[in-house]
Design goal:
The protein is 27% helix and 25% strand. With 284 residues, it is an alpha/beta fold. The protein folds into 2 domains: 49 residues, Roll (Urease, subunit C, domain 1); 230 residues, TIM Barrel (Alpha-Beta Barrel). Helix 4 crosses helix 5. The longest helix is centred in the middle third of the chain and has 23 residues.
């Protein structure tokens, strides 16, 4: 198809009034006064804005289904605070209407995965919000390993395994230490029993996959940075609700941030500093 006479906002460069050609499901040409090819559908976009598809960098789209409760909720595997072996792709139902709603709102690509109940929750999958089969929609199957700091793991495991933020950090450190030991034994040719949790964490230690760190409050953000530096990890700081308060420390760390969601009320204490101003402060 050929989109004609639209106000085009490219990913890079200045916006302009012009045309976009789509061929075999990809953008084949962008410019002004493009001539239609034989059998090409022409869509007049006069008066309309044409934007790139929006990317959602942290969500659980397709993992918590619409109009259903426990049966369709596959966000958190709350059987253990450490579940690096689980994969978001195995809990993602791409035919749920929430995926359709996101696509029709212009969100064409998402990173979806486990929630923040566990200290380590499993891997995120990056997929396009179109199609009937998640395997066909994948951009990258295991794009990041989820970790969580602060109130959520404390609340979920308060009656069993976690009482303090100290133990959240200790559980993560212990998993990283054990994975490092397991990895080094394998690399040195030693015979070690297969461990699915350690296998899942090896790409994190090798910096082949970032640790995707849920952290709202400033102290939790700093703990994530501290552990990231201690083990020489790649990581992203996700939510960073208090990011503006310690922006100098975050900048010094060199770690990228994913801010939000902001379009909700302050549902808990950790969100008391939530503001639409935070993304601007972080970007600058």
């Amino acid at each position: 198809m050929l989109l004609k006479n639209g106000h085009v906002f490219p990913v890079e460069g200045e916006d302009f009034f012009g045309d976009i050609r789509i061929s075999k499901n990809v953008i084949a040409d962008v410019g002004k006064d493009l001539e239609a090819l034989p059998k090409e559908e022409i869509i007049d976009c006069t008066g309309l804005n044409i934007y790139p598809g929006m990317v959602e960098a942290h969500c659980h789209l397709g993992m918590e289904e619409s109009s259903i409760r426990m049966e369709g909720n596959d966000v958190n595997e709350m059987s253990d605070p450490l579940t690096p072996q689980v994969r978001g792709i195995d809990g993602c139902y791409i035919l749920d209407e929430s995926v359709k709603n996101a696509r029709e709102a212009g969100i064409t690509c998402v990173a979806a995965g486990p929630g923040s109940a566990n200290v380590v929750g499993g891997t995120f999958v990056c997929y396009k919000t179109n199609g009937k089969c998640i395997d066909d929609a994948i951009v990258q199957e295991n794009i990041a390993m989820k970790a969580a700091f602060g109130e959520n793991p404390k609340r979920v495991y308060q009656d069993s395994k976690i009482k303090t933020r100290m133990n959240i950090a200790a559980l993560l450190r212990n998993l990283l230490f054990k994975t490092k030991e397991y990895m080094e034994k394998k690399e040195n040719g030693k015979d070690v029993p297969f461990n699915m949790q350690f296998e899942a964490m090896i790409p994190v230690l090798k910096k082949e996959m970032p640790l995707k760190c849920h952290a709202h409050r400033s102290d939790d953000i700093l703990t994530a940075i501290r552990i990231g530096k201690e083990f020489d990890l790649d990581l992203t700081l996700d939510h960073v609700t208090d990011g503006a308060i310690i922006v100098d420390k975050i900048k010094e760390s060199g770690y990228p941030c994913i801010v939000g969601p902001a379009f909700t009320h302050k549902s808990k204490y950790e969100l008391k500093a939530k503001s639409f101003k935070t993304p601007k402060v972080m970007k600058e």
